Amino acid sequence: MRGSAALMRDRELLREKTWGLTWSNNQLLFGAVSEMLAESSIQPDGIDVFATGVGPGSFSGNRISLAAARAFALPGNKNVFAVSSGEVIACDILAETRAKEAVIIGDARRDRFWYGIFEQGELAPVMKQGWTLATRDELRAAISAGAAVASPDWDRLAGVLPDLVPADGTLIRAQRFPNARQLGLLAYEKFNRSIQTEPLSPIYLHPPVQPRS
């Protein structure tokens, strides 16, 4: 997993920080934000909108980033704008591959998968298929010819995805994570066009894990 934070003025990237994300270092987000503000001589009350990803992905990571955005925004009653983390990945994949569709897939455990399908849009990727849980066969049937496929869980799905992607599709054979710069750009464009934010809660698609008796 990877974490990132960015400080932007409109579409201009001022600062960006990235770090390897583990169970024990989620707090690095707060230090990264403080460093970027100090390096840019910007005060916290100079930020108008705080943007955050909400998943699908690391549930704890999404909860922490959402809570942090709300905490940063609270003193000045600033706006919080949420973007699907999968949409951020899809935006990068569509630009890189020029494919008509991008399928973002994650591991939902127990031989099930979560996925969403995006098409290229004028402003941002357009979601063709909402976030869905699927079996292996259902996922195979959902991936169209020529689609580009990417996953933040490539380390766990490398032995599975090659058999599900059509021969004329493009499989990104590496873990792909949402980056803060692209998230910020999407949030900026949507916010300034009065496009509604994603709900301010993590997108959680993993089925509940019940203890075995």
Q: How would you characterize this protein structure?
A:
The longest helix is centred in the N-terminal third of the chain and has 15 residues, at 59-73. The protein has 213 residues and is of the alpha/beta class. A hairpin with a 5-residue loop joins strand 5 (101-107) and strand 6 (113-119). The chain folds into two domains: 2-84 and 177-192, 2-Layer Sandwich (Nucleotidyltransferase, domain 5), CATH 3.30.420.40; 86-175, ATPase, nucleotide binding domain (Nucleotidyltransferase, domain 5, 2-Layer Sandwich), CATH 3.30.420. It is 31% helix and 28% strand.
Report strand %: 25-35%
Structural class: alpha/beta
Secondary structure: helix percent: 25-40%
**CA-based shape:** globular
Count of DSSP-assigned helices: 6
**Overall pLDDT, averaged?**
93
Q: Which fold name is given in CATH as the topology of the largest domain?
A: Nucleotidyltransferase, domain 5
SS elements, strand count: 9
Q: H/E series, N to C?
A: EEHEHEHEEEHEHEH
The CATH architecture classification of the largest domain is 2-Layer Sandwich
Domain count, please report it: 2
| CATH homolog superfamily of the largest domain | ATPase, nucleotide binding domain
Please summarize the sheet with the most strands.
5 strands, mixed
The quaternary state of the protein chains shown equals single chain
Going across the biggest sheet, name each strand in turn. Answer: 7-6-5-8-9
Span of the ends, CA to CA: 32 Å
CATH class descriptor of the largest domain: Alpha Beta
